Amino acid sequence: MYADLTIGGGGHSRLICSRLAGRGRLIGCDRDREAVAHCRVTFPPPVHVLHCRFSEVLTLLRPMLDDGAAGILMDLGISSHQLDTPHRGFSYSVNGPLDSRMDPEEGETATELLSRLDERELTRILREFGEDPQARRIARAIVHARQRSPIRETGELAEVISRAVPATRHKSLPRVFQALRITVNREMEELDQGLAAAWSLLRPGGRLVAISYHSLEDRRVKTFMRDKAAPPQSDLGLPINHEQTPAGRLLVKKPIVPTDEEIGRNPRARSAKLRALERIQ
């Protein structure tokens, strides 16, 4: 049994199915209802497609995996469909409602988030999740702009950012939209729970593969996999003894990154980093 926890448009799942050639089963999951609806039509049985967040994976998948999963994939971040669909509100390149929810029927929108946060908290979010050195200036501009009326469209927010930091707008725009998306969808909390759930679902010899697209994701994935591959520690932080083995084994010492040819075919893959971990026990 294999699981694709971010089935999206089904690209990775299609490749997995082609390798299985009827010799195994695949479960596909996604928190995006549009992706789930698309893949339920695209993939006939025995592929089983579930609508769920990472934090729900363990509860939903455990009854379906008698002996554990042989492989689990997590392709993190945002999909091309989400970016390219204006009504989803993820991109500053196309105007649309400032939504940014991966599940359009759950939680608050980015507009609602911007309407309730004070300048200090907004600055923190832009600095922590967008890693933008201009966070305070941008937050102040957003708070000032919303006093006239709520910021309801992606184009409006892009204009506010561009006026606040004209010299660095090309860097600040993706950073701000990333920070809002991460906050709206609680992505870091979900990622932590998803990694833990995936590990719990793997059988011995099973492999976890995670693809990240920015440093916040990659640091979490790297730390999680490194800790699982480290020797067991005593309460004092010292190795217990040389005979005990780590719970996991890193399959690549450094992340696999796309080649120039791959980036040429898909420019959005340029920041991708793939890490892989095998469960030993």
Oligomer: single chain
Which parts are unreliable, with pLDDT below 50 for 5 consecutive residues or more?
A: none
Q: What Rg do the Cα atoms give?
A: 20 Å
Helix and strand element order: EHEHEHEHHHHHHHEHEHE
Instruction: Give the number of helices.
Output: 12
Distance between the termini: 18 Å
Helical content band: 40-55%
Strand content: 5-15%
What is the average per-residue confidence, as pLDDT, rounded to a whole number? Answer: 93
- Largest sheet, spatial ordering of strands: 3-2-1-4-5-7-6
DSSP strand tally: 7
Coarse morphology: globular
Q: Structural class of the helix and strand makeup?
A: alpha/beta
What kind of sheet is the major sheet? 7 strands, mixed
Describe the structure.
It is a single chain. This protein is of the alpha/beta class and 281 residues long. Helices cover 46% and strands 14% of the residues. A seven-stranded mixed beta sheet has the order 3-2-1-4-5-7-6, sandwiched between helices. The longest helix is centred in the middle third of the chain and has 17 residues. The chain starts with a strand and ends with a strand. The model has no long low-confidence stretch (mean pLDDT 93).
In short:
The chain has helices at residues 11-20, 33-42, 54-61, 80-84, 110-116, 119-130, 135-146, 154-164, 169-185, 187-201, 215-229, 260-265; strands at 2-4, 26-30, 48-51, 69-75, 202-212, 248-250, 273-279. Helix 3 (54-61) runs parallel beside helix 10 (187-201). With 281 residues, the protein is an alpha/beta fold.
